[in-house]
Amino acid sequence: MAENFVRHTIQESELPSASVVEEVKTEAFRPRRRPPMALLSVVADGGETESDLPVFKSPFVIGRLDADFTVDHDPSVSKRHVSLTRRQGRDGREVWYLEDMGSRNGLYVRAVRALLGHGEELLLGSKRFRVVDRNAATNRGTISDDSGVVAEPDVADTYDQDAETHGPQVELVEIVDSKPIGEAFRLEEKNQWIGRNDRLCTIVLDDPMISPRHAMLRPQKQGKWTIADARSLNGVWIRVKAIPLSDAQPCQFQIGEQRFVVRIP
C-alpha cells in the first residue's frame, strides 16, 4: 500500500532553490472570455463603505424608483439617476462607464484636480456651485450648460449689463433650487484658497463640512481655472455626464446626498 500512497504536501527539500525560480510576476486570475464585473459599494453616512455588491448586468441602473439599486429615501435622487454600462473599447475589450441618465440634480465624481470653465458645477461640503461668466450670461440672456440646467431669463438679467466692458468677470455662485442665485464669489486672476478659515482663504465658506483649507483655485488661459483638492476630508466633486471606469483606481461618485464607490477588480 505504501507505493500507492499519494502525498498532498510538498516537502521543503523538494522546493527549487531561489536561484532556480525565475523572477517573473504571476498575474491574479482574470476572465479571458467573459466581460469584467464591477463592484459597487455604498458609502454610509459618516464615511464608512459597506460591502461590495457585484455588478454583472449592463446597464445597471441606480435611482429612486424602477432601478436595479434603489435609493428610495432621498428625494433629490431621480427615479433612474445613473447607470453602469459596458461598452467595447478601442482595443476590443469591454469597458465600464458611469453615466448620468438625464437626472435633475446630476452626477458628481470626486476629483483630485479639475479644469473649470463657464457652466461647470461642483460640490464643496454641503453646497453646490456653478462657475458663471457674467459676460457670457449677459450676451445670451440665459445661463445654460451641458448639464441641461437653464436659469430663467430674469436671473441672467440681474447681472451687470456693462460687465463686458470691464474684462472677464467670473464668479463661483451657489446653486439654490437648480439656479445660480445664491452667494457669489469673484474669481480673481491669481491663486485663491477655498476653505472655512477666513485668515487662510479668500473664498470663505461657512460650512462645517468644509476643511480650513479645502481647495486651491489657479487661473488658466481663456477664462478657465483649475481646482485642486488640498487633501480635504470631504473632497472636491465635479459634475459630469459620463466617465469611463479604470481598473487602476476606484471612482467615488455622488447622486443626491448619497455617495458610492465603484471599482473594476
Question: Can you describe this structure?
Answer:
With 265 residues, the chain is mostly beta strands. It has 2 helices and 20 strands. Mean pLDDT is 85; it is low at 139-166.
Give a topology summary.
Blueprint: E1 38-43, E2 53-55, E3 60-63, E4 69-70, E5 82-88, E6 94-100, E7 107-111, E8 113-116, E9 121-124, E10 127-133, H1 134-140, H2 153-156, E11 170-174, E12 184-186, E13 192-195, E14 203-204, E15 215-219, E16 225-229, E17 236-240, E18 242-244, E19 251-255, E20 258-263
Parallel strand pairs: 3-4, 13-14
Antiparallel strand pairs: 1-2, 1-20, 3-5, 5-6, 6-18, 7-17, 7-19, 8-16, 9-10, 9-17, 10-11, 11-12, 13-15, 15-16, 19-20
Q: How many β-strand stretches?
A: 20
Mean pLDDT: 85
State the end-to-end CA separation: 47 Å
Shape: globular
SSE order in H/E notation?
EEEEEEEEEEHHEEEEEEEEEE
Q: Give the class from helix and strand content and strand pairing.
A: mainly beta
Spatial strand sequence of the major β-sheet:
2-1-20-19-7-17-9-10-11-12
> How would you sum up the major sheet?
10 strands, antiparallel
How much is the radius of gyration in Å?
25 Å
Low-confidence stretches: 139-166
Helix content: under 10%
So how many helices?
2
Percent strand equals: 25-35%
